[in-house]
Specification:
Elements (H helix, E strand, L loop, with lengths): L1 H21 L14 H13 L7 E5 L1 H4 L3 H5 L5 E4 L5 H6 L1 H5 L5 E5 L2 H5 L4 H18 L4 E5 L18 H18 L2 E3 L29 H11 L4
Parallel strand pairs: 1-2, 1-3, 3-4, 4-5
């Protein structure tokens, strides 16, 4: 009789145990795939096929980097643009071999706003940037690394993608990134404040959608002028 009662209790508990194993948390898992993955699958293999020439300047990041005509801006045909629209810190980590094998003289990294758009935690973004820095330092020790702050956004602009309306996360992540650069002894470049209006948003004169810089707005020229002024170029 006792055995039958024990079996009955176990049978009644099994559904509860099964539910506990499948619903232990409501926490959202971190998404490691960037926006517009088709750009990643097109551009990353293309980069890998290019001849390996060492000692060049590389700009690495997402669409904000991709949209910059760095060769023209720097008047240097050897500069490499390694921006991929929609990319996130996880994507940069996956394609970092293409960077380190080229042993760049200088590396300008700008990444993180798409992570924020995908609700990846600020601390995870900063930790991934730390991993990027550490790998470059280990695999290309002569490279001067410049980690640039995430740019502001302007949600009042037409066509602004609302999932980027997270300026408080941008500010907090920039603080964390700055601390990472201090810990890893590389250069933090505050370009965020170059482009803010009086409300701390991305100035409308530099953007068409509140997220990206426009080629005609003069933002890229201001960016490069600042890098030159600071002695980074």
């Amino acid at each position: 009789m006792k055995f039958k009662r024990a079996v009955l209790i176990v049978c009644l508990l099994l559904p509860i145990v099964g539910y506990a194993q499948t619903a232990v948390t409501n926490q959202k898992l971190t998404d490691t795939i960037g926006f517009l993955p088709q750009y990643y699958t097109q551009r990353a293999p293309q980069f890998a096929k290019e001849p390996v020439v060492t000692g060049r300047i590389i700009f690495l990041g997402n669409s904000i980097t991709q949209l910059g005509d760095w060769k023209k801006l720097l008047n240097d045909t050897t500069v490499l643009n390694r921006g991929i629209a929609g990319d996130i810190t996880f994507g940069v980590l996956k394609r970092l071999d293409d960077i380190t094998k080229r042993q760049p003289s200088k590396l300008f990294l700008l990444i993180g706003v798409n992570d924020i758009g995908k609700d990846i935690p600020d601390v995870v973004i900063a930790d991934n940037i730390r991993k990027i820095i550490v790998r470059v330092q280990a695999e290309s020790p002569s490279t001067q690394i410049y980690v640039q702050s995430i740019l502001p956004v302007n949600p009042d602009m037409p066509k602004f993608p609302q999932h980027y309306d997270k300026q408080e996360h941008i500010l907090n992540t920039d603080k964390l990134i700055k601390k990472v650069t201090e810990d890893t002894h590389c250069t933090y470049v505050n370009i965020h404040d170059l482009f803010t209006d009086k409300q701390g948003r991305l100035d409308a004169k530099y953007t068409g959608d509140g997220l990206h810089l426009t080629a005609a707005g003069g933002g890229y020229e201001k960016w490069v002028d600042y890098l030159r002024k600071k002695g980074y170029l």
